Automatic annotation (TrEMBL):
Its EC number is 4.2.1.1. It catalyses: hydrogencarbonate + H(+) = CO2 + H2O. Belongs to the beta-class carbonic anhydrase family. The keyword Zinc applies. Zn(2+) binds at C40, D42, H98, C101. It comes from Paenibacillus yonginensis. This is carbonic anhydrase. One of its GO terms (molecular function) is zinc ion binding. CDD domains: beta_CA_cladeD. Its cofactor is Zn(2+). Binds 1 zinc ion per subunit. Keywords: Metal-binding, Zinc. SMART domains: Pro_CA.
Length: 194
């Protein structure tokens, strides 16, 4: 019998729990290193990013999305950052983009065509268009990974609900080697403002 992906996950999980393998990951909900990290959902970063940043389970709140982008100042990513700060004790924010990010080459027209090929009707697309939703803008990426990080750092740092004392840093990670490049040092910007 061939297991579906979800069945395979559940089978593995039964063994994981039965063997108490979870014990190595027990921690609480508060980030021990008092960090909130916004990063990309890229599969190459799942284990590489925490290792490259010397993070263990429980050290940081990691918020992932396509491109490590805050696209709306009152969207779910910014809400998660504020929850990490006000409710969970994070004291610094780090935005980590990565080299070779798919958002740097995202083509809205190509993606819309792919939607049509997978069954999204022109009626649905027209309804969205007439409702004021511009998919071409919503599905927009960025020109370079560094510029994407700098723009997101700016949106977070200038948010009216972010405490002035919270440094917001920006980094780019090499998705092959794990090498980190500091693009924005929020500590220096904070000192300059004082």
């Amino acid at each position: 019998m061939i297991l579906s992906k979800i069945q395979s996950i559940l089978e593995f999980n039964k063994e994981f729990v039965a063997n108490k393998e979870y014990e190595a990951y027990v921690t609480d909900k508060f980030p021990q290193k008092k960090l909130a990290i916004v990063t990309c959902m890229d599969t190459r970063l799942i284990e590489l990013l925490p290792k490259a940043m010397n993070l263990r389970n429980g050290d940081a709140k990691i918020i992932k999305n396509a491109g490590a982008i805050v696209s709306h100042p009152f969207g779910s990513v910014m809400r998660s950052i504020l929850v990490a700060i006000y409710e969970l004790g994070a004291e610094e924010v780090i935005v980590v983009g990565h080299l070779g990010c798919g958002m740097a080459s995202l083509n809205a027209d190509r993606m819309i065509n792919s939607m049509k090929e997978r069954g999204i009707s022109d009626d649905v697309l027209n309804t969205l268009k007439h409702s004021g939703i511009k998919l071409e803008n919503w599905l927009r990426g960025f020109d370079s990974e560094r510029e994407g990080v700098i723009e997101t750092v700016g949106i977070i740092k200038n948010h009216p609900l972010l405490p002035a004392t919270v440094p917001v840093h920006g980094m780019v990670i090499d998705s092959k080697t794990g090498e980190l490049e500091l693009v924005v040092d929020g500590t220096l910007e904070e000192k300059a403002a004082l």
